[in-house]
């Protein structure tokens, strides 16, 4: 089982780098070509969510990504240090007094996670007051690259 760890500051430009790294490693671990766009989009969505959360709550803290091949699965875990709004169940979902009519962070976070669930083969979300961890995985070749 090989593991690659990547940390980056909460800047939107780094999301692209994370997507490129995840796609390259997914290809090397044997994820089918037809799934690579889903890997790229899901990792981009998880990292974008983490960047936004960090920019609001802890802009100086890095976002961490762990990529690994584990017995026929390619697994990506995106971890942030921003307190998760999902833990606060009492919070209103809609703010009717919002003059700009913007969606609240909790609703947007839930939407991003729904997108990730639609793209990844398996998704687990672990929210806490110390941050959120999103684990996504896809089927991969057991020995790395698929052979034709």
Any overview of this molecule?
This protein is 38% helix and 24% strand. It contains three helices and five strands, in the order βααββαββ. The chain has a five-stranded antiparallel β-sheet, with helices on one face. A hairpin with a 2-residue loop joins β4 and β5. The longest helix is centred in the N-terminal third of the chain and has 25 residues. About 16% of the residues have low confidence.
Q: Give unreliable regions as ranges.
A: 86-108
Major sheet: 5 strands, antiparallel
In spatial order, strands of the major sheet run 1-2-3-5-4
**If you compute it from the alpha carbons, what radius of gyration comes out, rounded to the nearest whole angstrom?**
16 Å
What's the helix-strand series? Answer: EHHEEHEE
Beta-strand percentage?
A: 15-25%
| First-residue to last-residue Cα separation | 23 Å
Shape: globular
* Beta-strand segment tally: 5
Give the number of helices: 3
Mean pLDDT: 83
> What is the helix fraction of residues, given as a range?
25-40%
- What structural category characterises the helix and strand content? alpha+beta
